[in-house]
């Protein structure tokens, strides 16, 4: 009897996995957007990214995403130019839940992963300073809507708010998750628009 139950459970689990795999649909997203820190007098910066998702069901998707936000400032005095450039690159896992499978598809989602940052400074075009690459853990809740143009193509508009956590040991690298300092947090919000290739749709 025990052997029968083990076999039955194994067969049932296999059927469930095959059913999920048979439905799974891949989705590729390309985004561009703007973001702004919560600090007073902060600049609005531009960014963009790409994401790959797998729909495990018509309404639920998991995936990975990479984005880049860039900021730069030039200071010119007496014909001499000092330039500063900084990049922030979040590399995250993603979860999304869609409230519908029609033309208009509202959704909520979230990102969590590691945020990499680096900057350099140039004087009259020559690099004079460059930071080490820093990494911090971070997370970002999202909410938006997809307009499904057809079964495989959609336009996306979303709002996103990033939380970047400090490192408890004050080092440049995030290390393990236990090193995340949730009391030392940088925040910035943004708006993204994008093109989605491959939609969950109906089973």
Automatic annotation (TrEMBL):
Annotated Gene Ontology cellular component terms: outer membrane
Any Pfam family the entry gives: OmpW
Top-rank lineage group of the source organism: Bacteria
Protein name per the record: Outer membrane protein beta-barrel domain-containing protein
Source organism of this protein record: Dyadobacter koreensis
Lineage of the species this protein comes from: Bacteria, Pseudomonadati, Bacteroidota, Cytophagia, Cytophagales
